[in-house]
Amino acid sequence: AEAAEKLVEAAVESPDADPAAVAEFVAKVPWQAPIARAVTDGSLSVDAAESIRSGLGQIDAAVTAEKLGTALEALLVEAASLNVDQVFKLARRLRDQLDEAGIAAREKQAHDDRFLRVYRLGNGKVRLHGLFAPEDGEFVLSTFDSITSPRRGGVRFVDKEKAAWAKRVQDDPRSTEQIAADALVQLLKIAGEADQGRVFGGRRPSVRVIVTEKALKPGQPAAPETAEATETREAAAHGQIEGNPVPISQETIDRLLCDTGTRGIQVDDTGQIINVGRDQRLFTEAQRAAMGVRDGGCRWVDCDRSPAWSEAHHINEWLADNGYTDLADGILLCHPHHLLLHNQHWTIIRTGNDYWLKPPVDVDPEQTLIALPSKRATL
User: Fold this and answer.
1) Are 47 and 85 members of one domain?
2) Which of 83, 99, 115 is the last residue in one of the domains?
3) Residue 30 in this model has a pLDDT that exceeds 90
4) Taking CA atoms, which of 114, 123, 196, 373 is between 20 and 30 Å from 96?
5) How far apart are CA 307 and CA 288, in angstroms?
C-alpha cells in the first residue's frame, strides 16, 4: 500500500509527470488511473487531484476498487466546476455513501480524541485548550454564536426586547473574545448553582441534524447478532449536523431522537422545500421532572450521575412505536451511558415498574438481564 501511495504521488505531483511513472502507476493502482491522466492532460489541478485522493480514501474490506472507480468517474465530471475545498467535500460524501458502516467507527474515533486541558500559567492566568467531536463541538459553537452573534452580523431581531439586547451587545465596550470568555465563566457559575435534581431539556442552543427518510425508517434491526445477519443487513443510514461536513451514524441519530424529537421538512428532487411538518417532540419538561424524581439520576449500573447530568432515553424505537411519549417508557441515562447504549446496541426493557438492561450478544452471549433500580434516595 505504501509503495502504491508513492506511485500515486509521483503520478500527480506535476502536470509534466514522467509518462513512464504514470504508466507504472496505472498498472499498480488502476482505479486511480483517471486521476493521473486528468492531471497530465491538464484537465485537473494537482491540488484537486490530492483532494480527490484524500477524500475518496483507500480500498478496504467494505469499499472495493470497482466502487471507488465508479465514484471517481462521477467525481471527475463535477470537479471541473468546483474549487479544491468543494472537490474534497464531494469526494468525502461519496466515500461515506459507499462506506456508511464505517461512519460509526470514524465517529467513535473523533469522540475518543476529545480533550480539555485547563492549566495555570506562571503569571497566574489560566489557559484552556481543547478538542471536541463534531456533535459536542457544534453545540459549543452554537452556544457562543447565540451570545456573540450581534457582533458578527447575526440575524436582525423584530422583537423589541431581543433587538434591545442585540444593540447592547453591539455597543458593549468589551471585545467579542472578551464577551465569550465572560460568558463561559457565567455559564459555569450558573451550572454550579443549578438544581442537581432537575432534568434539563427543551430550550437549548440550536444544533440541527439533517437526516434522510431512510434514517427514520422504523423496524430496522438495531444491530446484527450473527454473521449471516451481518451479510444480509441493509446498509445503515446516516445524517449530518447542519453546517458540519462530517456525517453522523444511525446510532447517533437514534440517540438524538430520544432527547429532541424531529421536524419533518420535505424537499423535491431539485432541493426545493415543498412541505414543513409539525414538531414531533418526546418528553415534556413536566415528564422530565417526573423522571428525575422517579429515577434519581442515571439508572445505568453503578452510575452516580444526578438528574441534572442525565438525558431522557426512550426505551422503545420512537418511530416504530409511533412516537408515543408514555412516561413509563422513558428512563434517565447520563450522556456517556446514553452514548454507550446506542453505539454498542444495548437495550432497556420494562416489565411492570421494573427496568432491565439487556447486553448485546458480543458482551454476553446469554444476554442476561441486569436490574436497573432507581437511584432515588429512600424516603
Assistant:
1) yes
2) 99
3) no
4) 114
5) 9
| Cβ contact 169:150 at 8 Å | yes
Listing DSSP states for 171-187 in one string gives H-SS-HHHHHHHHHHHH
In a domain, residue 30? The reply is yes
Q: What is the pLDDT of residues 251-290, one digit of tens each?
A: 887 787 776 665 656 555 555 555 555 555 567 778 888 8
Amino acid identity at 4:
A
3-state helix/strand/coil string of 237-274: CEEEECCCCCEEEHHHHHHHHHHHCEEEEEECCCCCEE
- The grid coordinates of residue 379 equal 424516603
Domain boundary among 228, 249, 280: 280
Q: Are residues 270 and 294 in the same domain?
A: no
Nearest to 234 by CA among 101, 79, 89, 73: 101
CA distance 203 to 260: 10
Q: Are residues 171 and 185 in the same domain?
A: yes
Three-state SS for 57?
A: coil
Q: Summarize pLDDT for 66-122 with one digit per residue, the tens.
A: 888 888 888 888 887 888 888 888 888 888 888 877 788 888 899 999 999 999 999
Ordered strands of the 238-241 beta sheet:
209-211, 238-241, 247-249
**Long-range contacts of residues 85-89, Cβ cutoff 8 Å, at least 24 apart:** 85/51, 87/48, 87/51, 87/52, 87/55, 88/51, 88/52, 88/54, 88/55, 89/55, 89/245
CB 263 within 8 A of CB 278: yes
- Same structural domain, 223 and 243: yes
Structurally, how many domains does the chain consist of? 4
Predicted structure pTM score: 0.59
Asked if 75 and 7 sit in the same domain, the reply is yes
Residue 271's domain spans which residues?
209-280
